[in-house]
Each structure stands twice: as C-alpha cells, then as structure tokens.
Amino acid sequence: MITMNAAVFVGPNEPLELRELTIPSEPGPQEVLVRLAASGVCHSDLHALDGDWETPAPLVLGHEGAGVVVAVGSEVTGLEADDHVILSWTPSCQKCEFCVSGRPVLCQLANETAYQHVFFDGKPRLRDGDEDVRSFLAVGSFGEYAMVPASAAIKIRRDAPLAQAALVGCAVTTGIGAVTNTAGVEPGSTVLVVGCGGVGLNVVQGARLAGAKQIIVADVSAEKLELGRTFGATHTINSREVDLVETVMALTDGRGVDYAFEAIGLPFTIEACYEAIRRGGTAVVVGQVADGVKISIDPFVMSDQEKRLIGSNYGSSRQSIDFPKIIDLYMEGRVDLDSMVTDRIPLSGVNEAFAEMRKGRGIRTVIEYDA
Ligand SMILES: NC(=O)c1ccc[n+]([C@@H]2O[C@H](COP(=O)([O-])OP(=O)(O)OC[C@H]3O[C@@H](n4cnc5c(N)ncnc54)[C@H](O)[C@@H]3O)[C@@H](O)[C@H]2O)c1
Ligand SMILES: [Zn+2]
Ligand SMILES: [Zn+2]
User: Fold this and answer.
1) Using a 6 Å CB cutoff, which residues line ligand 1?
2) Which of 11, 134, 247, 286: disulfide with 117, CB 3.0–4.6 Å?
3) Per residue in 306-323, pLDDT tens?
4) Total count of domains within the chain
5) Do the bridges between strand 235-238 and strand 214-219 make them parallel or antiparallel, or are there none, so unpaired?
6) Per residue in 96-127, pLDDT tens?
7) Which domain holds residue 244?
8) Which of UniProt's keywords are assigned here (predicted)?
C-alpha cells in the first residue's frame, strides 16, 4: 500500500477535503499505477461539486491528469515504469462493438463502470481507512497517485511538459476533437463557438487548425472574448450586451454559420447555436447540462432545412492516436497549450481554483504535484 494525499468530494456544495488515502502498490494485471505530475481543474469537476450531476461520495475528483508510470500490471504491454502518460477518462475495453468500430469514447464497459467512478471489476481502488473511495471517471487526478485501466494511460513523448500535457487529458482533446473528429469542419467554413472557457478556446484552436475562414466567439466575459481572439477568433460577440443569434446573422449576411459549437452547457445557448446555423448546417453540443435539463427546438425547421444537431463526447477521440498527435502539434508550435495554463497551484489550493472558475476567471488552473 502507498499512502497519498488527495482532495476528496464528500457531498455537493461541500468543500473538497484533503485526506490521506491508501492505494495498492501493485497494479492489477491490466492496470497501471501512475504518480500524478499535474491535473487541470475542469468545469465537469465543478458540475459534480455543485450537485449538477448526481455523484457518489466519498470520491477523489479530477479527470484531466498527466504523470509518470510507477508500475504496470502483469498483462500490460507497451508501457513501463518511468513512461510519461496522459490519463484518459474513458478507458476502453477494446472488445465491445463501440471500441471495435473505433469509437472508444462510447465503450459499453466504460459506461457501466468508469462513468460510475469504479473500475472494470465494479470496485474502487482507493481507501480511507476501512472505507472505499471512488475515483472520478476511474481517474481521480486530484490525488498524488492514480490506478487506471491500461487503456486509460496513454504514453507521450518525454520532452513535453506535464502541466500542459495534463490539459490534453480533457479540455484540449474535447475542444479540438469536436471540430476535427466529431464535426469534420472543412477548410473555408464559418464557425461559431459559444463559451470561451478551457473547452471553448480549444474549439477555437481546432477551427483554426481546420482552416475555418470565419471564427465567431461568444461569451459574457470581455476577458474571455479577448482570449478567444488570441486563440484564433475573427469576430467576438458579448452575448450579455447584444442578441447572439441576430449578431451571428448580421456577421454572415443573414445566412448563419456552417457549424456552431456550444461549450458551456446551458439550454438557451444550445438552442441559440441551433438557430444560428445555416440551412444544412451542424450544431454540436459539447457543453454538458445539469441532470434533467431539456432543450426546445423546432422539428419542422430541422426537417425542412436539414439542420443537424449532434453531440460530442471527449471530442470523439481515439486517445491513443489523438493525445500524442496533439502533443506533437504543441511541440511544433501549432497548438497553444502554454497560454491555457493561467494558474499553477498545490493540491491544497483546489477549493480556491473552483471559486475562481465560478467567477469565470482564467482558463485552466493546474495543480502541480511534487515530482
Ligand atoms: N462533451 C465533453 O466531452 C466535455 C468534456 C469536458 C467538459 N465538458 C463541458 O464543457 C463545458 C465547458 O467546460 P469548461 O471547462 O470550458 O468551462 P469553463 O468554466 O472554463 O468555461 C465556461 C465559459 O462559458 C462562459 N459562459 C458562462 N455563461 C455564459 C452565457 N450565458 N453565455 C455565454 N458564455 C457564458 C464563461 O464566461 C466561460 O468562459 C462544461 O459544461 C463541461 O462540463 C464537456
Ligand atoms: Zn473535463
Ligand atoms: Zn468497449
């Protein structure tokens, strides 16, 4: 057993508690023990903390992590101690129809286990004395160590800084992948991105990489809109000051955009994205709403104008391909991860990081662990 510090979710709207937990020092046959170097703080963690999503307690939050392999299970191939890895929050069984057809983010087994914050055998790996502690999405990156299924530890090159790499574990892959994998945005497209947080700014980066000719961003924060410009936006809309859909129409000669991405998780901004697309256009839901929230759209318009409304989970990524590819693009200077890291904190500062996120400040706070 290894003793480790972790930030534990004890119930909605309660601060995370810093506790000493134990984790096995020997991974199971198909598992990997990782010492975390860094973890981003994502709005999905905040959804759990705010009680937007029913989440069992006690549980170690955090799902945007990178670190160094400590030990691998007896059946694990292609990974060894000291390898640098980014953690994936959709482990894949590599056997179900979704995994076999190249859509690991839809893995049946992950849906039944990791999305309940337990491992493929249905059990947690962490303990607080005699009590079991779950790991958020079978990652739990707000802890010094994580045990993950082998398919959730993706090896990356050793020269990439792990604080920036951690963000590839969620926001970056989610945002870029929504554009390149889910929507398949073509060069010359017009794109709207609603919400310029960690995820939305990566949608902007993805649209720039895909060669979009017009990238319109909308947010209620002037600071976030300015950041949108630095990541590649051509036009900004402060949707607190002007009507979002009317302004998009004015910027596109009344036509609407080819693609709209919602990266907040609110029903009215999802509806606005759908209204802002052209005939035959595609609206992509990336932001995640609180449990039970519904949207309202006009199905006559949907059929009459062949509008498409689609969802994107984890940027429809195949993590073993997408993570190293994005890291290469970063190392070549074509994807900006440095500007995404707006604060670096020790684990003990995690509750303040959520307070800043609630105020809409910064892009990503990164927890750094002692290496
Ligand atoms: N689909 C996926 O796989 C996936 C993965 C990760 C995160 N998410 C979800 O994406 C969403 C965004 O996550 P994030 O980490 O970027 O959050 P964030 O808090 O960093 O960013 C949210 C942004 O939305 C803006 N905003 C808030 N209310 C607004 C409004 N009414 N109009 C316009 N802008 C508004 C904020 O100013 C902020 O810039 C969350 O719902 C999160 O759960 C989805
Ligand atoms: Zn996330
Ligand atoms: Zn599967």
Assistant:
1) 42-44, 47, 170-171, 174, 194-200, 218-221, 224, 239, 263-266, 269, 286-288, 312-314, 357, 360
2) 134
3) 999 999 999 999 999 999
4) 2
5) parallel
6) 999 999 999 999 999 999 999 999 999 999 99
7) 175-313
8) Metal-binding, Oxidoreductase, Zinc
